[in-house]
Amino acid sequence: MKVLIVGGGGREHALAWKAAQSPQVTKVFCAPGNAGIAADAECVPIKADDIDGLKEFAQKNAIDLTIVGPELPLTLGITDVFEDAGLKVFGPSKEAAQLEGSKIFAKNIMQEAGIPTAAFKAFTNAGEAKAYIQSLGKPVVVKADGLAAGKGVFPCRTVDDALDAVERIMVKNEFGEAGSSIVVEDFLEGEEASFICFTDGTTVVPLPSSQDHKPIFDDDKGPNTGGMGAYSPAPVITPELHDTVMKTVMQPLIDTLARKNIKYKGIVYAGLMIKDGVPNILEFNVRFGDPETQPILYRLQSDMIELIAAAVDERLSDSTVSCDPQPTVCVVMAAGGYPGSYEKGLEISGLEDANTVPDAFVFHAGTANDNGKIVTSGGRVLGVTARGATIAQAIDNSYKAVSKINWPGAQFRKDIGKKALNR
Ligand code: AMP
Ligand code: GLY
């Protein structure tokens, strides 16, 4: 089987690495890939949102299965275009991808399916949104409706902050069209976790739980990033909570979409906020999490390609997921300055050394090959991942590998996995 992975970050390195291990796979391509992916796949210089370019490549190279990493091509309709061309593709249809592409769509589906989520109101008018915020007079979260590269969500502790968020999104148009409508919702407290599943549109098969670390600095300080580290499993998701989420969130979601004739084959990812053992849904994503995929796939013992093929062929009901019981941890190493502006093209040292640390592996995210030298090419640069007999051991092993790697300005959080240790 020839497989094409779309994307070029840490998540896609994990996908390419895992795909290459499948006995069914003869060749992996990745578009556009990165310097680390090049060890597991042939990288082709096609951008992840160049749907026609990707389709042409898949046709010319007789690709048997395309796996879409990021959300953008999904919301642009890559699945519909590939299916119309008779190509097998893993990812929801354009209509279903609105679950991530439109916060209002997601909230309405949640309401219809009876999924627990923060109370909300949607607005297309800034004045009305501001009046509503003033009438509430309490902490709220203001969210641009459309995709805003993870930057369109403003958790606001004060009314003034919330009014300012409306101004930035709807009046100053900081996110363009994505901010022409917004959601204002109640501010939820608790601990976040990621719940990521395969679905074929009928059956939902969960992967192990995980937890991301969004803020840039230790102890969840500073601005949000794409994710500075993750571990799996997340002990905040107890077996009872796991059952509750399957029964009250994942299955009702897929059943509701199916009832509305909205086709969904792919990954469905619920962002949970958990307080006193009770989950609320913050968001849905329509693809694997980044960096959660790195520690999850590092644990996965099942053939990922078999699971994906089962989802695409609508036979997931016969599938189970088996995982190494040992916990895994991924520490993201980022460029100095990230999530603000940062330098690119800096040579990274110590990568080979890091990969000799037992039970550790370095997934590449923003890296490029510059005449044989591995250099930085993005904000999140590496996902240094390790397993251990205990979470403490896994944390230790990842930081051991991190300590071998360097480039000017490299930054990483020192507390990845601490919440699991505290439990
Ligand atoms: P989202 O993209 O909707 O998941 O939002 C990004 C981040 O904003 C989440 O991971 C949370 O940390 C925070 N967030 C979103 N919605 C809420 C909410 N209702 N209450 C508190 N924090 C939230
Ligand atoms: N790690 C958060 C995300 O993938 O959206």
The main pleated sheet reads as: 5 strands, parallel
Mean pLDDT: 97
Number of DSSP strand runs: 22
Number of domains: 4
Strand order of the largest sheet: 3-2-1-4-5
Low-confidence stretches: none
- Which molecules other than protein and nucleic acid are bound? adenosine monophosphate, glycine
Write the layout of secondary structure elements.
Layout: E1 2-7, H1 10-20, E2 27-32, E3 42-43, H2 51-60, E4 65-68, H3 71-75, H4 78-84, E5 89-90, H5 98-101, H6 103-113, E6 120-123, H7 126-136, E7 140-144, E8 153-156, H8 159-171, E9 182-186, E10 191-199, E11 204-206, E12 211-212, E13 215-217, E14 221-224, E15 229-232, H9 239-259, E16 266-275, E17 278-285, H10 293-299, H11 304-312, E18 328-334, H12 351-355, E19 360-364, E20 367-370, E21 373-376, E22 380-387, H13 391-402, H14 418-422
Parallel strand pairs: 1-2, 1-4, 2-3, 4-5
Antiparallel strand pairs: 6-9, 7-8, 7-9, 10-11, 10-16, 12-15, 13-14, 15-18, 16-17, 18-22, 19-22, 20-21
Helix pairs in contact: 1-10, 6-9, 7-8
This protein binds adenosine monophosphate and glycine (GLY).
